[in-house]
Write a structure and sequence with these properties.
The chain is of the alpha/beta class. Among the domains are: about 20-155, 3-Layer(aba) Sandwich (Rossmann fold); about 175-270, Hect, E3 ligase catalytic domain fold (Alpha-Beta Complex); about 355-450 and about 490-525, no CATH class. The strands form five sheets. It has a four-stranded parallel β-sheet with strand order 2-1-3-4, with helices on both faces. A three-stranded mixed β-sheet has the order 9-13-14. The protein has helices spanning about 30-35, 40-50, 70-85, 95-100, 105-115, 130-165, 190-205, 210-220, 225-235, 265-270, 335-350, 355-400, 405-440, 440-450, 450-460, 460-470, 490-510, 520-525; strands spanning about 20-25, 55-65, 90, 120, 175-180, 190, 240-245, 255, 295, 305-310, 315-325, 335, 475-480, 485.
Length: about 525
Amino acid sequence: MKKTKNTSSNRTTPTGKKIAVIWTRVSTKEQADNNLSLDTQEKHCREYALRKGIEIDRLMGGTNESAKEEGKLFKEMVAYVLSHRQVNTILVYSFDRFSRAGAEGIVTKAILKSKGITVISVTQPTDPESSSGEFMEGITFLFNEYENNLRKEKCAAGMKECLERGDWFSKPPLGYVRDKDSTNKHALKIDEKGELLAKAFRWKADEELSDTEVRSRLKALGFEISKQKLSDVFHNPFYCGKIQHFYLGDKVVQGNHPPITDEETFNKINGIKTHSGYKHSEECPSTPLKLHLLCPDCGCHLSGYKRTKRAKTSDKVWEFWYYKCNTDGCKLNKSAVLVHEKYLQLLERYEIPPVVQGMIKEQIEKILREQASNNRDQERELNSQKTKVGNQRELVMRRFGLGEIPSEVYEATIRSVNRQLEEIEIELTRIQKLASNLSLDVDKILATACKLGSLWKNGSFNTRQKIQNLTFPEGVKWDRERDIPRTDVENEALKVMRLLSANYKMAEQEKTGKSFDFPAVVAEAGLEPTTSGL
């Protein structure tokens, strides 16, 4: 039994006259190349319209438009039909060309029908005015959605399998391009920008440059990159050969692509070191020794945590901080107050008596003078090389401009020359930075080296981190029996100062008047300024 025709239509089409828009769509290139091409769909729609006496208003649609996502062209078609009151029909090759979104397709079709617009599939004839016809159309939309979901599931499974093999199926990240010479269609290779990003990783890790300084260097080499994009690169494990993807969940796999940087450099930049040089991603002033203090049994870094206690008669709350080893069975748990007190005593061992500071100052000044002289010689040599390479660059550019050398020779030569200039500039920057550090007042160097305890006690979180990593680069272990921190590795220059101080104090205690050979001790240990890390 037929339903009563829609009387709410505001169409201006004469009664019984059908004026249609033909809508065609293909979602993939494969569909466009086979019998679902746009031309095929249009042909069938026009033949149907000719048989049924339907007037064609216009043809609309396009390639790679997904009805599920309501692509731009689909929206334009619906808007056109709704705004042109003479149109009362949409002709499609099949209902899945109109929509593969199931319920959404049914809703869209119902809205159009309420406006007097009928969607007709020329290959799936139904009676849109009957209940059974409307039901069958709805079933068709739902089946299309089911089929589409099955296809997506198969596609997702294939992409996951691809990732698990270590292959990257998506668009290559910045710095990579498809390796068309490889038999593996997913193979990647590093392009020119990737080579520059490799330098950026080295600058960031070795020279501890800020992102702004790295961007400035890259720009000087002709590679402009936004601050956010550079940060994304530095934090993306893809660049050290790893693959992370939401299809893999929490799993990280080794990729088959060539890494732009090594894992150690990547971890250093991202603060994921496995030793005490770790820099906290989140500052916790109450536990500055976290990830610097080691468990003596398992060798793992101690973590920090706090406990609170609320007063019974007031709102006052006390916080108590602790260090603990999270390894099962270790049970090392120490009050942060005790640990900090003992650590401070360890640093105070480097305090030098005033009578010895004069001798140390004299030796430091001597070393600074020698180093400054060496730096000046190196700077002169580097500037000479820079001038020579710069002249070569101008000569090559001039010859290319005169047509004396082909473009491929010019490009290869310019790349080589630019690389030499870049390396010279980096070394010059390092020498100049070192010279600036060495020009610091000797008294400040002594104040830093000889008062580590007070500097650590009163310093900010970052200052404490720098002092810790400078003094004990491999961290310290907690001695369970004596309840003190101890270390086998310490800064060599500070070690000299500690030994001199201990020697002097011992001589004073024994009252023997015995002297000690200061220059010999210094020469053996190799004294260097200790402020470079602060």
